[in-house]
């Protein structure tokens, strides 16, 4: 008889034998005892998967049809109710058999109900209900203290009552009556779902009647829907998301309360509804009463108010558009919104969101969007960390909604597959189909990083098409336990993973386990290739798949020859003997890479590589590719690699190739970054005939297979270890040994990230060079020099085409690859080069500088020096005189302030006890990454030395902590604890870092000796020789604009201008040009200084009424346009000329028209144009060398002769003469120093002038300016001159 069938036998028939123990613990031994099980009870018992619950309930319905009214329950577990389902048959009355009491369930379905008949007869009126607002309604909670529910918050509105006759107040029982499971309700009395339009009525009369409502009604017009789980109401019939959801399990009573009105009573609230008519009201009341009526007749279980108790994450989220936050719960494949946590406990929510149509999108700051086809929910989390947790939980919910458990259930049928093969996490959902192991989500990420050539990762839930019957059976035969008997036979306990292991630990373990085979059980035939292949051919004829796994991953070749012509490969041999699982395993591992260390005596050459398929190819070329190739430039070709020959054809039907090359002709293979060209994935082949072949595809797997096959074909046997690297460039180059520079030899090189792997002819195995730690990287003609400590390698360019690519790639890899400490160019001690060189310079020249690290340097110099370090720190050398100490100290501080992830990876300790704090500092230091640890030790050592000389530099322990606390912790001075931590690290430097005090003493003695030596060589006798304090004005001469500047002998006009602008923190716009002028107030003249002109001689020559002024060139752009239009830098034309003479102390002379000619050497004066036209035969009336003249703008009234005045008719003409004169004079100016001046837009240098117009115009402008790069900085003009003139003074 079916009802007497034992539960284990029944579950085995359902392939759910894993639940036998669960049913036994619940006291269910026969099928008859399971007749009243519901989905909720199953979930509480531990049947967590919805598919399993459905399978169990369907089986009970089929085997015990007369004992179960399962339609409603089955539909609740299914897809939902149909809109127009007919009224079900009458419910079946159950026998009085109490089901077993299971453990508390995570998602309750049944709640205790209340008797309502007596209350209905008493005529009790409902308690007030608040007005509705936005997404949710407020309801009253009378008597909640009596029923044991948590109290509601105080009402924010006045509570009124209906003006009706007084009635006897309703009384509630002292405790909740127990309620049976909801599944006992017969579906025949429940015509569900039920939908209708209602008016939800407030009791205080404060809400205006909804348009269209019956006369006298006041409330909100709502569309109400009742299904098996919830009573919901919406704004309209078209809305998808409700304004309120009431679990049907929480309804305790339904009663008529007046004309067309009825109330729905829950455990803590009363909802008042008004129908369109009395008949409709009565129908709804009847349905609801029939729904809860049978539940009151049976004993039930412990009350659980909210069905979402098994949530993945819950808490408050801000929903943009609302003033308050909503309590949000992610549960299974849904997201529920509640007004607050109290509502969540009572199960009264706002709406639910089905995640099978959802998508989570990251937004700015703490915001993220949950997008559905019907609405976008804009959430804002409280912190960035919580935001990530919410997004991950919602994505998991989406995956849960889209998941299919059919395959997972079959794989989990093998008990060993119910735990991750790597870390032991339960219910793993991912697998490596070629390795035969099942693992969890966190381990799956590390398996993907191995690449598909090692681990082919597939999902048990989402990759259903991959899981054929043979593949599923293969995993059941292997199982994690048997697979790990090979893969994890020798795992040390200290290296084993646990479910709580970090990502870094998982990465190390999985690489060692599967890529390196560190823990595998070696086969007895390991190292003997022939015996391994022979054993494989014999074993595939049997069903022992575990032995095949051991043979393959110990070196047996899955494509080896069997010796049988009709059955050439092991897979064909296995298929012939009907071993389908063997065929499946061999097929999956046809291209799997196995890292096997072969013994030389047993090594045999690998079989010839064969590969073919379609690729997209460009025409071969003899020059490097510098531009992006679009898809239109590629042609589709059928490519074949076979017997050491690579050919490409017009199509796969052509027999004659369009071209090809032999594998021995390939000298370099390059894998381009994704999206370099029109096709997302591309690679380049360089031949020894100086030709470059570019191939592309949109399929990354196709590209990897081709790259692997081609690389295997041309790399020699002794360099095969290079193929294990994830390379971007691999090939052969010639090199020279430092001990024998006369002859070069061939080596094979592989560039992977910032490491250059090398296999040389005379070396055993591969060697590697960390390019970021090179002491020197230089290029001399066609030789690239790589200098490490104790080793130098000379790489020669045998062919220019591929050698130039190697040089560029190595130089790029040797530079800083990012903004974190570990991505900087490093020293041998893992210290960033910028940190070491700054500290070395400051130790040599700055430890005695007063206020070191507190004084600010010149911002422009700091930015330029920091940029040089970031571009190539190895090429930057700090020298005394070229860099100032304050500039270098600020570069070091700014580097630590701007570095990503900071120097510290976790928060510093805050305990008050000093000994405990020191212990925690030591733990913090030991937990830092390798580069961070070395950098912190070096920096604290330097700061310790600085404070030891505080009597000279005034930087004691406290002052250094104030400066470096915010810098190292990147807190912008807002965290007081940061300064205290730095102070502790410096003060307890010896203890925290376990410093050898003898070495520290020797270091301090060396520094003391350096300071004394510098004092002896440069005795301090006061201010620096030649320094002069000068007053400089900004834009105009007034007291508030003056700046007192110390002028060293080496200061240039550009440096003075920079310092003034930086002091005043002037912001410079795109078209602003600044210059330093020599101004004479009394004579109303001015002269711009060349940006390389030394300022100190000008200061010494200034008169009483003269001063220096920094201001803008207002007409600079017009002058630049004029100079750009000049072909040769000459000018001639008529000017008014006056020469001042002194006669008995009186000046004489008047203006006369003269013709002037200005060229590169001199300024010539002619009486008229005709005379000047015969330059070859007529000498000028006057001639002055350009280099002996000074040019001023304005009128100088009292200058000693000889002085000449040149007057122009217009300001434009004067500007052209002035620009030409200064441009020529600067070009031949002997006072310009050889020291290069920094480029800055504020000085108007040509290289930073903003370019406008089309490409040709910009090129013409640049070409014109390149001819005279120094001219721009000297161009200026005076504005609003009453008399426009050029004053020329001859210097003797």
From TrEMBL:
Residues 819-993 form the Rho-GAP domain. Residues 200-293, 310-399, 608-715 form the PH domain. One of its GO terms (biological process) is regulation of cell shape. Residues 2-66 form the SAM domain. GO terms for molecular function: GTPase activator activity; phosphatidylinositol-3,4,5-trisphosphate binding; zinc ion binding. This is ArfGAP with RhoGAP domain, ankyrin repeat and PH domain 1. Residues 396-519 form the Arf-GAP domain. The keyword Oxidoreductase does not apply. GO terms for cellular component: cytoplasm. Keywords: Cytoplasm, GTPase activation, Metal-binding, Phosphoprotein, Repeat, Zinc, Zinc-finger. PANTHER family: ARF-GAP WITH RHO-GAP DOMAIN, ANK REPEAT AND PH DOMAIN-CONTAINING PROTEIN 1 (PTHR45899:SF3), RHO GTPASE ACTIVATING PROTEIN AT 15B, ISOFORM C (PTHR45899).
